[in-house]
Design a protein that fits this description.
2 domains, single chain, elongated, alpha+beta, 234 residues, Alpha-Beta Plaits, Translation Initiation Factor IF3
Length: 234
């Protein structure tokens, strides 16, 4: 019985060794490479962040002031249905003197606006600038449009990958190849934020000038990397 167990163990070990050897032998004639597809796309969506900041000796009065300004801004925003908004970074915090005594309270709040309508955004921002300041502006490609463009770019990149695989295989003297694995990665290089300095000028009738926005472009990238195994076929 002991002899049979030893013989069985040796046979299993031999089979495992042969399997590992066969697996390793299948890794010959493999090449890994990458192709890249890039496209400069005009931005069609603008995001503007506007902020309120006030100081007051009374924290309660300060909070009430910030809340009223925010409610007023949101009421105005509702008149522009093409623009979506969200409120963030609301805070009321104490400001201390150098000797660690409470000096006053500072409150702040931000509203982020997003739209694909430049003229509507400019008109709204011009109104809100009477009580708020532009913190930053940024252009980007809208999600739905980016998805459509990426899909087209992936199709092009896959054709490029297949062509490269055929070229490599043929150039190295092999008649055919098979795909071992493939990875697809797409990204969009976000444009640098643009701070709207043109919006700071005051008009003679105390109204604020409308900001001037320039969309620019975003570079979308698709990377496809993979491994092929080249075979000598009859």
């Amino acid at each position: 019985m002991h002899y049979i167990k030893q013989l069985t163990a040796i046979m299993l070990l031999s089979m495992l060794t042969l399997t590992v050897f066969a697996s390793e032998s299948n890794k010959y004639n493999r090449v890994t490479f990458q192709v890249t597809e890039q496209k400069d796309v005009s931005n069609d969506e603008i995001t503007v962040t506007m902020s309120i900041e006030r100081d007051n000796q009374d924290a309660k009065k300060l909070a009430d002031d910030i809340n009223q300004l925010t409610r007023s801004a949101n009421t105005t925003i509702k008149e522009f249905p093409a623009i979506s908004s969200s409120t963030s970074d609301y805070s009321i915090r104490p400001i201390y003197t150098r000797d660690n005594r409470l000096d006053h309270w500072r409150g702040s709040s931000s509203i982020t606006l997003k739209s694909q309508d430049n003229s509507e955004m400019a008109a709204l921002v011009q109104i809100l600038q009477n009580t708020m300041a532009i913190q930053s502006t940024r252009y980007s490609v809208s999600p739905d449009r980016k998805e459509k463009i990426h899909t087209s770019m992936i199709e092009t990149a896959l054709k490029k990958f297949n062509g490269r695989a055929q070229l490599v295989s043929k150039s190295m003297g092999f008649k055919k190849f098979r795909l071992v694995d493939i990875n697809i990665n797409n990204s969009g290089n976000l444009p640098r934020p643009v701070y709207a300095m043109a919006a700071a000028r005051e008009m003679s009738d105390s109204t604020t000038a409308a900001p001037s926005f320039e969309s620019g472009t975003t570079t979308l990238t698709v990377n496809i990397s993979g491994t092929i195994e080249m075979e000598v076929a009859p």
